[in-house]
Amino acid sequence: MSQTNINEIQEIEEIAGGEFEREPVPQSKLKSWKSFIGMYAGEHAAGTEFVIGPLFLTTGVSAFDLIIGLMLGNLLAVLSWRFLTAEVAVKNRLTLYYQLEKICGKKLVTGYNLANGILFCFLAGSMITVSATAVGIPFNMEMPTLTDTMPNGMTWIVIVLAIGAVISLIASKGYDTVSKAANWMSPVIVLGFVACGVVALGQLEVHSFSDFWNIWGEGSEPFPGQIKYTFWHIVIWSWFANGAMHIGMSDLSVFRFAKEAKAGWATAAGMYVGHYMAWIAAALIYAVYIKTPEAQALLGNNLAPSVAPGPLAYNTIGIFGILVVVLAGWTTANPTIYRAGLAFQAIMPKLSTFWVTIIAGTVATVAGLFPAFAMKLLDFVAFYGFILAPFGAVIVFEHFFAKKFGVTKNYAEVAGIKFNKSVLLAWAISFGLFYFISVKFDIFLSFVTLPTWILCGILYLVFSKVFQKK
């Protein structure tokens, strides 16, 4: 990544972190689509990838399901960013939060901010867990297993608390510090994923594409405690892994700086460097571990081998692996804690950025003590998108269909209200109905994310038509 690209990325992120929060971005601050490539490549080759890749292997996926399913699912994600998020962003040039405030009213947006902040904290906590698995190697720390939910020892607790404290303090220094560090480290992390994949291929004695394909072959039974993933599980999950960002419209805050909507294509750098190459590379290092006598003994006793990223990377590329895992977890947790702090600050505006970030970091550190957030990351990411994505449907459906349905856009602002009940009713009904269906009929949660999103958008237009007339 050139110095020019790094500077452009930093400029976008710094502005996104604090300027033009309640006004459209001026023309002088707009950037071309090339400026977004490095940002997305760096952001999506991160700590989560070290967990998600191995977790895919525990679900017994076949080669076709994984390789072709990820290719299609990530393409759908890119299309969502390009034709929904970027399209709306360049028309309005507003942050997600201000756009929602105009539609929903300040009181309802407060509830959204609270949910968003808490979920950000849990995600950051899982990344603290990731870093802890690497830091704990020199201390012979007992690693969390796939089924662990509680802290497994005092060493684990001390390491997690120490990492959480450092990350929180750095995040509290502001987005400038956070973004600069992440942008300089992202090439090292990407290199680490490539190195892990290449070395793992050698350890697995892969000499041809057929050898590579046979690592997964026709699939297998899922590990104890996991469900079986099919082709459509992979496609739909990878599509909505960042559902809150694209169909949930969170990345309006980023793409409002784009000159044209075609900047949305830049997300392909994140999807195919991070969510394709990095996930498969991380799966390969787990495939190496599964062949060890230790892992085979665990499977023989009907126990799932650990997916702790630290030891997996260390066994593949040594000390460099520990460094990459620490950096990957750190560069994901840091901006996530900062964003959680901003969400909390919208609720508690009298508190300084420093203190709300420390609060967010504390919540994230406590969450990091519990390995379940990282070990169940596939489920957590699906739930995260399922909760927040429908709010994006409100923005999308209003943007494209308000005029056709005779609905007033930005109704809360126009009517001078602080609580738009049309939004709450649309979200609550769609969320409640499809969550009930998912639980009652044991349907994979990601399968109902799109129906929930569509229903929420339709209900919002219907309720708006009714209540706005009154």
Automatic annotation (TrEMBL):
GO molecular function: cytosine transmembrane transporter activity
InterPro entries documented for this protein: CodB
Assigned GO CC terms: plasma membrane
Native species: Wenyingzhuangia marina
Protein's recorded name: Purine-cytosine permease
N-terminal signal peptide: none
Keywords: Membrane, Transmembrane, Transmembrane helix
UniProt cross-references to PANTHER family, sorted A to Z: CYTOSINE PERMEASE, CYTOSINE TRANSPORTER CODB
TM region positions: 63-84, 117-141, 153-172, 184-204, 229-248, 269-292, 312-333, 354-374, 380-401, 422-437, 443-463
